[in-house]
Amino acid sequence: TGLIALDPGYANTGSCRSAITSIDGERGILRYRGIPIEQFEHSPNFVEVAWLLIFGHLPNAREYADFSAELTACANLDEGMKHHFEGFPRAAPPMAILSAMINALSCFHPELFELEDEQRFRAAAAGLISRIRTIAAYAYRHSIGRPYIYPHPEQRYVPNFLHMMFSDPYAEYVCEPLVRDAINLVLLLHADHEQNCSTSTVRMVGSSQANLFAACAAGVCALWGPLHGGANVAVLRMLEEIHQGRITPEQYVRLAKDRDSKVRLMGFGHRVYKQFDPRAQILARVAERLLAQLGRRDPLLDIARRLEEIAREDPYFVERQLYPNVDFYSGIILRAVGIPTNMFTVMFAMGRLPGWIAHWWEQAGAGGRIARPRQLYVGPESLDYVPMDERG
Ligand code: CMC
């Protein structure tokens, strides 16, 4: 079998060629199809970015209008899917529901399996991007025991999502432009990040030629963990714990440095960024701006700032090049808008979906080999089977 190179965590293994997103970790630069993400800060439009990532260029006015119309047209879930929500306990983790329901789309839209041409793929991509938000909102409504709110036939992507989350039959939620822009920005800053754990999962599942829904459902599961997308929930819990006075920021940082504690400073550190994570810098600015515009203060933002300050001066974090990542400040924004903590990772998944779709499609087009890593076997060389009654 020849010599196998061992690379735990794939820190030095390139798994594919990709033209979607580039990261310069040394200089803290992230580009979508060549465009630095800072350039999206003042005209945040998640749908436009989704198109860019998937189809490779910014949409022109007609492409954008058509795609937006397509998203609006397919926002409804098949009524049959609603029965599935009923079966989940109220306290079910929304990420479990999200993954199950995305997979269930395979059952309700088999026509989107045969993706032999770009038009069919576009319909599948639009259907998925549109419906993930309906699924996310329904998962939330189910968890609070409120009726599902159908997608609005006219509203745009983000206002429509917030409508499904927060409207009631007798009281329609009105989305302020600053809230719409903040959520658009949160979503688009999560939209792709090259070969991260969930995207690599999507590509791996897709490499067996499994369908788009199955691959993205697997992506949701990979994202769920606290070292990946689940970190945004862990950050909020950490900030709350400090806010409730159970531990001080200084004590928390001390604990995070202690290997035996198994505690990490959540929202800190990144495999690729070694100076700063540009997404975190933008999100910190947006969090400040949004709270100021809403005329509110959030003590958790002060705590986050304090933690960052302590860590920046601590040799442990400096030497290991650990800086705030995308999950450190995003929760402050989501919270300000009324998104409950247990939905944070679902929001990450909604944001990351265009990236997953773009990678699935890129890989399908490249027609590569099935992903199949090797291993270094370290178990016993050879043993004999022992019948049950002869075992000790
Ligand atoms: N707090 C304390 N120590 C840390 C942290 C942290 N947040 N992150 C890394 N370290 C230490 C780690 O203990 C190790 O120390 P040593 O060299 O003494 O053994 C060193 O820094 C390198 O860490 P690593 O675990 O080998 O780094 P990695 O590239 O494998 O992991 C990471 C990257 C993001 C999983 C990790 O930094 C981490 O666990 N961070 C906290 C969780 C988090 O915020 N995840 C979100 C990642 S960004 C967006 C996303 O993907 O969702």
UniProtKB/TrEMBL annotation:
Keywords: Acyltransferase, Transferase, Tricarboxylic acid cycle
The family this protein is said to belong to: Belongs to the citrate synthase family.
Pathway assigned in UniProt: Carbohydrate metabolism; tricarboxylic acid cycle; isocitrate from oxaloacetate: step 1/2
Listed NCBIfam families: cit_synth_I (TIGR01798), PRK05614.1 (NF004126)
UniProt GO cellular component terms: cytoplasm
Record: active site: H270, D327
Coiled coil: none
Organism annotation: Marichromatium purpuratum 984
PROSITE patterns per the UniProt record, alphabetical: CITRATE_SYNTHASE
Underlying gene: gltA
High-level lineage: Bacteria, Pseudomonadati, Pseudomonadota, Gammaproteobacteria, Chromatiales
GO molecular function: citrate synthase activity
Protein's recorded name: Citrate synthase
CDD domains, per database record: EcCS_like
Pfam families (UniProt xref): Citrate_synt
